[in-house]
Write a structure and sequence with these properties.
Number of helices: 3
Shape: globular
Radius of gyration: 13 Å
Number of domains: 1
Distance between the termini: 19 Å
Order of helices and strands: HHHEEEE
Mean pLDDT: 77
Strand content: 5-15%
Largest sheet: 4 strands, mixed
Structural class: alpha+beta
Helix content: 25-40%
């Protein structure tokens, strides 16, 4: 999990964080390239806003999928633990889905 919550206000800063995580975890999204991700995010401001919120809460959003190429991509919180205020966030219906890859442990 990332080192706690932090505010990311700059889109370029968010994209740098996401790209580094994407490159470090290629096993999550074989068949998808970083330009594929950027193209999808360029068409979906709501997804970018949700990714920023997940990152700010201490989550670790990343791309998952790709078995069928870029059209199979989704975004998911891949942190080992649920971040503060964790829950599922979604973009507009039919767009990029954002959820949590590791369900929270029962308390």
């Amino acid at each position: 999990m990332s080192s706690g919550s932090h505010e990311i206000t700059d889109r370029d800063q968010l994209m740098q964080i996401l790209e580094a995580r994407f490159e470090d975890n290629m096993h999550r999204h074989s068949g998808i390239t970083w330009p594929d991700v950027l193209a999808k995010l360029a068409r979906n401001a709501a997804a970018v806003k949700s990714l920023r919120a997940i990152e700010a809460s201490g989550g670790e959003p990343d791309v998952i999928g790709g078995a069928r190429g870029a059209r199979d991509m989704a975004f998911c919180d891949c942190s080992a633990e649920s971040p503060a205020g964790g829950g599922e966030l979604r973009g507009r219906a039919g767009d990029t889905i954002i959820g949590h890859a590791h369900p929270p442990s029962p308390r």
